[in-house]
Amino acid sequence: MIDGEDGMRFAVGALLFEGNTFSPVIATRADFASKYLFADAQVLDRLRGTGTEIGGAIDEAEVAGDVLLPLIATHGGAGGRVEARTSAEFVDALVTRIAALPPVDGIYLALHGAFVSEDSLDVDGEILARVRALRPDTPIAVSCDLHAHVTDRMLDNCDILTGYRHYPHDDTHETGRRALAMLRDMAGGRLKPVMLRCRLPLIVPAQKQRTRGDGPMAEIRALAQSLITGPVRDIAHFCVQPWIDAPGLGFTTVVTAHADEAAAADAARRVAEAMWERRHRFLVETLPPARAIAAGLETGGLVILADAADCVGGGASGDSAAALAALLAHAPESPAAIHIADATAATAALSAGPGAQIRLGLGNRRDPSYGPPLEVEARVLRAAPDSFVYAGGLMRGVRAQTGPSAVLTVGAVEILVTSNACYEYADEAFVAAGIDPRSKAFVVVKNPMNYQQAYAGAAAMTILDTPGPTTPNLAALPFRAVGRPLFPLDPNTPRSLAFRTRTRAWTT
Ligand SMILES: [Zn+2]
Questions:
Q1: 112 occurs within a structural domain
Q2: What integer is the mean pLDDT of 171-198?
Q3: Could you give the CA distance from residue 133 to residue 506 in angstroms, rounded to a whole number?
């Protein structure tokens, strides 16, 4: 607990996971524990000073002299679905603590907004409905990832819903501060929030969602920022996690205004219309790996090959060997680096020891949908550390557990083989393993966005046409449950703006 003199009392907790219904990866308790998993006093002790939302809420509370009552805080990264019993354990742990709270001025929960379990497509909505049932009159603020799928149940069971404004996500800390500040304003009567949600029949791949620079999403961000004035306190634009086959999926704007529904509606409409006008600019070109490598050999310098279809941060397994197979087939003597999550191969390499020449299968084990492990003759270079610390982004300061790990070489290709798959922010995993990616001709990255910042200055960056559950080619995925028509699955989808309002009966 943080003690203040005149401060208010807020309960704070975090339960984050980004699901992907096209991925077979089932996330377990260990996947949460390998990022962060804290309860009660540990939440504040361990997350103080980090870039997490709770780290931001702690800083905000200390400035204002608020008292924080910690619940639980955990992040499971991304995956397919969360194991049902793990999901139930965490939701119960959060809800039972809220049931046991003394009276509080508000509750702040950091959720992802795309938490999918084995038995639910809307765990975030279930959490908020249970919390609301326990505390019908207590202000509830929620912050979500920019890729949240904000369901009706989520919106209906909170008072303030904000989100990360940046992609790459480097503003989790300030999002936590903002959520707590708005909650304090509501508890103090200075904010009577009216939330207006506007949804478009539109999903977009992640590659063009960069909120800095001059791309289409940077324009949306700038527009939203310009509209935060007067009664409009906050505008959250949710690109949504496009790999969830769930009803109602679509680009969503949530505007929070002070007792002014018309102002909220106007701002939400303007952001939605601007997004719709730009929808074609979000589509991306991909290249078959063989062509991308041939072009890279011509270019020279550092060439980034983005295997975005195998993005751990989007729910894929991080164990695809498709890009490695292409490198070994087309440029085996070009210095290259790639990361593959494969516990079986890591164990085999470590037991063979440095210097050993071994034949082994690599990758395609956690997600066997796209072929068998790639058979290679590899040399074990060295063991790699079993963890690294994120240098930035939403996990800044958090230690990722890669588990038993090794560096192998095949030809001139250095392969980081880790037991656990890890969200990729920049180059932390390579660097911790002693691999210098900037000295290579090719670096395979497995994310759709962060590499554009991490490797700014590279000679070329190409998005590979590879298979996987986080492919930017959304029309290639077997969507069934989403509402149709939906752009770009249905290229001629007509524009429609679906509004929903969340407000309380304010007495002024
Ligand atoms: Zn996100």
A1: yes
A2: 97
A3: 19
Cα-to-centroid distance, 496 and ligand 1 (Å): 25
> How does residue 4 score in pLDDT terms, banded at 50, 70 and 90?
very low
Residues 422 and 445 grouped into a single domain = yes
Residue 507 has pLDDT above 70, yes or no: no
DSSP 253-278: EEEEEES-HHHHHHHHHHHHHHHHHT
Q: Which structure tokens are listed for 125?
A: 């909505």
Report the separation in Å between the CA atom of 240 and the middle of ligand 1, taken as the mean of its atom positions. Answer: 8
Q: pLDDT confidence of 1, banded at 50, 70, 90? A: very low
**365 and 398 housed in the same domain:** yes
Domain-embedded: residue 71 = yes
pLDDT tens-place string over residues 372-405: 999 999 999 999 999 999 998 878 888 999 999 9
Give me 279's structure tokens.
Answer: 């929808």
Give yes or no: residues 19 and 163 share one domain.
Answer: yes
Over the stretch 257-312, which tens digit does the pLDDT of each residue have? 999 999 999 999 999 999 999 999 999 999 999 999 999 999 999 999 999 999 99
How remote is the CA of residue 316 from the centroid of ligand 1, in Å?
Answer: 14
**Are 75 and 32 contacting, i.e. CB atoms less than 8 angstroms apart?**
yes
pLDDT in tens, 91-126: 999 999 999 999 999 999 999 999 999 999 999 999
Residue 28 lies in a domain: yes
What's the CA-to-centroid distance between 49 and ligand 1, angstroms? Answer: 21
How far apart are the CA of 294 and the centre of ligand 1, in A? 32
Calculate how far, in angstroms, residue 146's C-alpha sits from the geometric centre of ligand 1. Answer: 5
First to last CA, the chain: 33
CA of 210 to the centre of ligand 1 (A): 11
Higher-scoring residue by pLDDT: 507, 106: 106
Q: How far is CA 491 from CA 246, 331, 346, 474, 475, in A?
A: 19, 37, 44, 12, 10
Q: What are phi and psi for residue 308, nearest 5 degrees?
A: -65, -20
In whole angstroms, give the CA distance from residue 150 to residue 144: 9
Distance 368 CA to ligand 1 centre (A): 25
pTM flag (> 0.85): yes
Longest dimension (CA), the chain: 76
d(CA 297, CA 43): 49
Tokens linked to 358: 């071994």
What's the confidence (pLDDT) of residue 396?
87
- Establish if 101 belongs to a structural domain: yes
What is the whole-number distance in angstroms between the Cα of residue 174 and the centre of ligand 1? 15
How far does the centroid of ligand 1 lie from the alpha carbon of residue 357, in Å?
40
**What total of structural domains would you count in the chain?**
3
What is the extent of the structural domain holding 279?
194-234+244-283+474-508
Ligand 1 centroid, distance to 140 Cα (angstroms):
22
Ligand 1 geometric centre to CA of 166 (Å)? 9
Ligand 1 centre and the CA of 323: distance in Å?
Answer: 24
